[in-house]
Amino acid sequence: MNIIQLVRDYGPVGGMEGYVWNVTRAMAEMGHSVIVICNQNHCDENSENIEIYEFHGKLKKPRWLQAVLFSNRCSEKIDEIRKLDTEKKWTIFSHERTSCHDFATFHGPPFATTREKPFWEKLSLRHFMNVRLEQNQVCWSETCTVIPVSVHIKSMLEKFYTDEGIQLTDPIVPGVDPQGLAKIEKAEGDNKVIGFVGKEWKRKGLIFALDVFQELSKTCSELEFWIIGADEKAIFSLVEPYKKSLNIKTWGYVENRLALFNQLDLLIHPAKAEPFGMIITEALTAGVPVLISDNCGAKSEVTQGRGKVMSLNDDLENWSATAAKLLKEGNTGDPYARNWNVVAQEYLKLAE
Q: How many CB atoms lie within 10 A of CB 35?
């Protein structure tokens, strides 16, 4: 199969970018020919089955203008590629707001959610252009298919684009590289470690997680709470009062967070909003139980025995009691295994 991937930044430099990078490499390893059209390539690696077209240079702001320029450049480049071999058929997967693709993947909430905002918040050129760009993305062609990466995103697309009659697939959730994620067995008597992971700590629910840990510590001793990924200076004033009576460790940015991941006994992720949540499936791959909010797209992966999905409207006592139960029982569910080859195969099956 001949495949074109459209993404502004190519390489493992973010959640969405890493998703595209991993899927592309998996497709190439299967023997498929892949062209990546991007504004900037962040990889030094070479592959005989991957060809990269890079536009270079920073795109102008605002972001909607960046999207327009990138879409126009992609359309021009695809026309050039097709003229080189008019007999060759290309399948085009886009991860941006373009209007020249066969499949459009949504890695986050649709902009259409702004329909629920007051009208005065929609009186701007920015809002008008983003609405038009997204409508082109999902409806530019009668044969265009939309791929959400989580059940959370799919439900939003169904809510806001039902009348447009878009072709919507089941979610294709991210894969996990299992390397380095084997759970470390602790000696009896070692402290139990609850982990919170996230650079965007406000959105991911650090304050609520600390309150749950404080409540849990009233009945459970020998506990540690690790905060991984959050800027230590930014959270200093928040965490210091808790440190006076609780065993809390802040790690800041950790390049290889997976080295810490497999030392956890529980991951807590009470996010206010989380399109998917890669750290959740990474924890499951390591055999770590998870306690997450129902705002996380990865809730679909938390099946029986793997953890618990709760509402932020539930009180602290319920969250604390559930955390205590998960610490005691551990992850008793089926092993979680979803590599990037599986993800790539799901994409290829859609294109058959």
A: 20
